[in-house]
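Milestone M4 deliverable, item 7.
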Amino acid sequence: MDNLDVTVLRTLLRWRSAGRRALLATVVRTWGSSPRPVGSIMALCEDGAVVGSVSGGCIEDDLIDRHTRAYAGGSGTADRGLDHCIPSGPPSFVKYGVTADEAHRFGLPCGGTLELLLEYDPDPGALAALVAALGEGRLMQRSVRLADGQVTLTPAQAPADLVLTPEHLTNTFGPEYRMLLIGAGQLTEYLATMALFSGFSVTVCDPREEYSRAWNVPGVTLTREMPDDVVLSFHPDRRTCVVALTHDPKLDDLALLEALQTEAFYVGGIGSRRNNEARRARLIEHFGQTEASLQRLRGPIGIYIGSKTPPEIAVSVMAEILAVKNGVTLPRDMAVAEAKNVRDGGPVLSGPVCGVG
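Output delivered:
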């Protein structure tokens, strides 16, 4: 689950806890091309406020128009009547893009159709329990009984696709994706900012006062503890990536060693081809590692885009992290080391670069 879904649920809980009417929309089916995948959610408040997305704009506008006219104010409100407010009752389904005209009207790709389940005034108690569980890092299944909207929450053992039956809708929600960055330099500022926009909860660790004192990226947690201690206390899981960016072996190496003992989906360190080979040699010689135990250690990190500046390098690294997160297998010639070997006239290796941890 993206961080956006956590934001949707938290915002919806805030609205409902304040006694405001609201609905939760979930993409339950798609046909053809669709701008958002099955399981995507958005929330709509009675005053027209929206958080999340099911289409990227046009369908959200239609839902606002359908369900919040009674709260729009102005001379037309009384004429429109209360039948346009958020209704009460059990969940209902709505389809968009059934015809070519509708697909054009709602900005859907050619031939695209999607179906939403609308839940009216979700129970704040159940929302609070779900948000609390996610805040504790637990993976949860939320099952909605279609007959009356009653919600059941159960712990989940693994991520799962949305399941729709004639009786229930079950959607799996997981905690936020997390990124732990070692080092608070300029590259970290760009990478942290991109990670925030990509839905990650970001923590930066740097015990060096000259770097941590100047840190100023809103929304990022900063700690000055030693990196290896931070990795241990962070408890990286399958929704966590750890990236070392200091170029200082005293800070990077131990943190990477600890991260490799966890389920983090991405563990990598900044550095040139030569520096990464030197890091691997140090870890093997001084810390008892083997080529097999270092197989998950990524470096040089990023995809090859000819990056030179800190923001370009951050784009390269963020792209690789997202590819791994999304289970995308990248062509081998997109790997930094391979691309540079080819550029420099070195050996060419065949096959893909695996995009999974």
